[in-house]
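Try this one yourself first.
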């Protein structure tokens, strides 16, 4: 409501900013006036309340929730989830919606995000008055979703709650959200959700396919009504599954077991969900697509390692759907395939398809295994224009023993060769992943892996903290490696045999600060100064006693990991926090560290900061830099490519 009052003012910002940009090209004193206006606008933006979720509200019927895929006055089925942020569209829900068949006109999708209040979300869902509420549950939303479901079950206990998603597909026993729900469909529910809804809504007898385990569970569990269903009434299908006749009775679902396992759907039977991305999704949100499901690898920390075969979406059908998205103006495609470079011919065909239709501002994200990039794939990758391809490359560890512990195979020579190719012969943006806390990884072996990876020059290194995801086999190491995880989502590791709690906390901060400095693209030229030889010689840092300058003996090669850890400890001692640090403050502190702690030449450091500042397309030099720069440079500007995602464009070397 408050947001609505200020809406007209907020809407003024865009044209005002555009006007100011033009105004700035005028000579003094008009520029001064423009600057004054800009400051006023900035201050106002801070004071005015923001809409939760941070984006324009939808025109659909569920205010403030993202889009509703289908306008139905009183839907029988509402599909919902809480996304990690507004910008992430719920892809899984769209698959379920696309495959509802004759039930589709009776259903809507209502999306929220975890920054919204559970009470408000519950209110909006209850107002839709559904008979069935299907809820996608993931690690990032399980806590908030539990609150939402608890409220709904108290206010409207007759609404049937069906849960699904990775967080409730494994280790369901004892989960509070599972206790609250009526049914849980585990696994890929693209078809099963419709089947279950049909059973719940039908007024005539229907059947439901049950696996042997589910049949046994059902036959030994008395139904809520107090009567046992007659097992003899079930017919056995050829594959050992049971075809279960469901009693009619709209909304009762008496014949259904609580936990229902979805059979792996056959892609040739699935309707693709891409037409259910709305125009608003295409304009404002991350649109996910997938050309395959499943992963053949067995990394024990990862849910995708479970025994799920890889299946491809029929290529022609997939490309036709991509063409429709292109025609509707989509420019950024985020592939969620676990291993995009598995079937080389398919990967190549998809890349060629997009290359042939490339327009400025297009951006494609793929997840790859690092040691598999044959020549035919290399050739097409090399043709993509700068900034248009991003590869997320899981490395996780460069310690072969740790790799073995977690059943992850990796060929380091091929990996290094592929990185060299990507950095030297293509314009691909590489986002590489490492994990802290794996069984067998010491501080030193992680440091060595980090340093090796720095030498391979990916633009970003995501330093992740190990999580114990429900259903993953990493738990087999709990006793041997004394793995202690948080009991709350995201179940991050707190300590293990080799890294105590205090060290893990230091590393957690390292990861956060590294993201702000090393990955952000704001300090591409400055970051390596942190581990420059000169800095090593002039600094005593507790985190790297073995690297202290020892007079006559030659200096060891600086370690990027240890140097950054030193900065991280110093920064935390200054700030006492790892979040909500304004960029200007971070810059000043980094400058202080490099010049006062590391004793680097202030003019050299200032010039390096200035390079980064300009490359990221920013205007007037920050005050603390001005005394080291010639005055004519103070407001020079090189523009960055604003059609690409911000972070990636900042990494582009001008
Ligand atoms: C996109 C994505 C994200 C997005 C968020 C998306 C969003 N909507 O908000 C971002 C990038 C933010 C993200 C972050 C993380 N993610 Co993530 N992410 C994914 C990813 C790549 C794609 C999800 C997807 O669309 N899949 C395709 C669809 C078709 O599958 P699906 O979503 O699983 O849906 C199917 C079933 O689950 C089920 N289903 C889904 N909803 C419903 C609803 C009902 C009613 C029913 C019956 C069934 C059902 O049926 C669907 C169709 O088959 C998956 C990996 C993957 N490829 O799936 C990981 C994945 C979901 N993420 C995972 C993890 C661990 C994380 C992180 C913790 C990783 C980290 N950085 O440390 C963070 C957490 C963020 C946080 N804030 O805490 C795990 C899930 C663990 C869990 N138990 O939920 C996955 C599976 C990766 C993995 N292999 O381990 N992630
Ligand atoms: S980490 Fe990557 S390669 Fe390993 S199982 Fe998961 S998706 Fe597959």
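Now uncover the answer:
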């Amino acid at each position: 409501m408050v947001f609505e009052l200020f809406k007209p003012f907020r809407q003024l910002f865009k044209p005002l900013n555009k006007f100011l940009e033009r105004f700035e090209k005028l000579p003094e004193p008009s520029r001064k006036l423009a600057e004054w206006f800009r400051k006023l606008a900035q201050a106002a933006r801070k004071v005015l309340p923001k809409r939760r979720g941070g984006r324009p509200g939808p025109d659909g019927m569920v205010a403030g929730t993202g889009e509703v895929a289908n306008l139905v006055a009183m839907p029988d089925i509402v599909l919902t989830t809480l996304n990690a942020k507004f910008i992430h569209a719920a892809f899984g829900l769209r698959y379920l919606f696309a495959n509802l068949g004759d039930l589709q006109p009776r259903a809507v999708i209502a999306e929220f995000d975890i920054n919204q209040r559970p009470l408000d979300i519950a209110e909006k869902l209850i107002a839709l008055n559904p008979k069935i509420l299907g809820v996608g549950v993931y690690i990032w939303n399980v806590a908030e979703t539990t609150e939402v479901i608890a409220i709904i079950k108290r206010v409207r206990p007759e609404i049937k709650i069906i849960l699904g998603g990775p967080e409730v597909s494994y280790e369901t026993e004892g989960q509070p959200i599972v206790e609250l729900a009526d049914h849980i469909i585990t696994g890929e529910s693209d078809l099963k959700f419709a089947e279950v809804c049909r059973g719940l809504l039908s007024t005539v007898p229907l059947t439901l396919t049950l696996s042997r385990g589910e049949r046994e569970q059902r036959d030994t569990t008395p139904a809520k009504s107090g009567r046992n269903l007659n097992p003899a009434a079930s017919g056995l299908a050829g594959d050992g599954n049971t075809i279960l006749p469901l009693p009619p009775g709209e909304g009762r679902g008496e014949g259904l077991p609580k936990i229902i396992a979805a059979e792996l759907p056959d892609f040739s039977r699935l309707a693709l969900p891409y037409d259910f991305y709305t125009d608003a999704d295409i304009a404002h949100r991350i649109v996910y697509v997938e050309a395959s499901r499943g992963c053949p690898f067995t990394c024990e920390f990862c849910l995708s390692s479970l025994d799920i075969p890889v299946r491809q979406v029929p290529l022609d059908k997939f490309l036709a759907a991509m063409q429709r998205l292109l025609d509707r103006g989509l420019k950024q495609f985020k592939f969620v395939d676990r291993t995009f470079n598995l079937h080389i011919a398919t990967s190549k065909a998809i890349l060629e398809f997009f290359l042939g239709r490339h327009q400025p501002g297009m951006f494609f994200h793929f997840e790859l295994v690092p040691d598999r990039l044959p020549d035919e794939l290399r050739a097409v990758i090399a043709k993509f224009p700068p900034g248009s391809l991003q590869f997320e490359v899981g490395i996780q560890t460069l310690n072969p023993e740790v790799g073995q512990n977690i059943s992850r195979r990796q060929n380091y020579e091929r990996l290094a060769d592929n990185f060299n190719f990507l950095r030297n012969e293509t314009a691909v943006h590489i986002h590489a992943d490492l994990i802290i806390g794996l069984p067998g990884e010491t501080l030193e072996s992680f440091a060595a892996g980090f340093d090796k990876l720095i030498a391979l020059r990916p633009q970003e290194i995501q330093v992740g903290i190990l999580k114990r995801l429900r259903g993953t086999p990493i738990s087999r190491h709990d006793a041997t490696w004394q793995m202690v995880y948080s009991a709350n989502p995201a179940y991050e590791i707190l300590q293990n045999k080799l890294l105590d709690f205090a060290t893990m906390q230091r590393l957690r901060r390292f990861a956060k600060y590294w993201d702000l400095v090393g990955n952000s693209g704001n300090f591409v030229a400055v970051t390596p100064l942190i581990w420059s030889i000169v800095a090593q010689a002039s600094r005593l840092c507790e985190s790297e006693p073995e690297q202290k300058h020892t007079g006559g003996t030659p200096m060891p090669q600086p370690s990027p990991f240890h140097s950054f850890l030193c900065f991280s400890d110093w920064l935390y001692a200054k700030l006492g926090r790892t979040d909500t640090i304004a960029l200007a403050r971070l810059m000043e502190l980094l400058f202080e560290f490099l010049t006062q702690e590391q004793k680097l030449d202030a003019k050299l450091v200032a010039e390096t900061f200035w390079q980064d500042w300009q490359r990221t397309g920013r205007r007037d030099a920050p005050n603390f830099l001005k005394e080291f720069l010639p005055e004519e440079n103070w407001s020079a500007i090189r523009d960055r490519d604003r059609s690409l995602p911000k972070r990636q464009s900042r990494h582009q070397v001008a």
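Discussion: The first helix runs from residue 2 to 24. The radius of gyration is 27 Å.
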